[in-house]
Predict the 3D structure of the following.
Amino acid sequence: MIEKWLKWTPIVCVKSTKSCMKNIKASIRKTKKVKKIKAAFFDIDWTLFDDKENKWDHPSIEAVKRLQEQGVKVFICTARPYASFKWLGAFDLGIKWDGFVASSGGYAFADGKYIFTSKLEREDVEKFIALALKRKKSLELVELEDRKLIAPLNKEGKEHFARFREYVPALKEYQGEDVEGINFFADEKEDELFQKTFPHLVYWRYTPYSVDVMPFRHKKGDGINHVLAYYGFSKDEAMAVGDDLPDLSMAEAVSFFVSMGNGKEEVKKAASFVTKEVWNSGVKFILDKIIDNKCYPLK
């Protein structure tokens, strides 16, 4: 299996493209069982989207199109919820995505329908809102295709949206809609109280002022597994590209995982291949080599 050999020996893209290709091909020759790539999963932030420049990496987008033209199904796989990456323009790039894994694996969409979803119990949502408002904190409810802000943004909420340069959802009341997760804007001093009050929920603090609250731990890899199972694909028929710690579960779900050159060190160590940085069109670099040199079977 490709991951068994490659993940013990991550290959880093160096100055020489010729040397790079020699390394990739040598890796594949050492692989006993290499299946055709049938599905490819791409992170957004710092992978296809350059967050520093606040723009999509269009050369890499074109490379994803080329991959799809080879018969490979292409999917977004992001920590962002649907409403966020739709607002970012993910569906205005000229790619007809075959589906997506959103909210770090909280739900998955393929073949024109949701094939996996998760939701919080209505009672938990109502009680969480009540306690947050009592504590004068703001929160965002994340639904499958919408987001709503509960209470005007507090200090932590303003810091959150300023950091991620996100749009601020409309202020609305909760009326019992299905909620996939809660984005809670509060500092660490609130953690103990909320975790004690709602011990059955899962918390992931990803900034000093924001916490994801979930019915269970969302993992991108689990979302990928749902997509592969739906199509009847094995992990040996899938590849993925990412850069950050939540992308480590992507590495576990596919046989060929690529880390961006700007990725975290832990991600690079888990990768089959380390490509160039997002600002140097790293996704385009690896996809061009795969397609043009046929170093990994496509069809």
About this structure: The first strand starts at residue 11 and ends at 12. The CA atoms of residues 56 and 89 lie 9 Å apart.
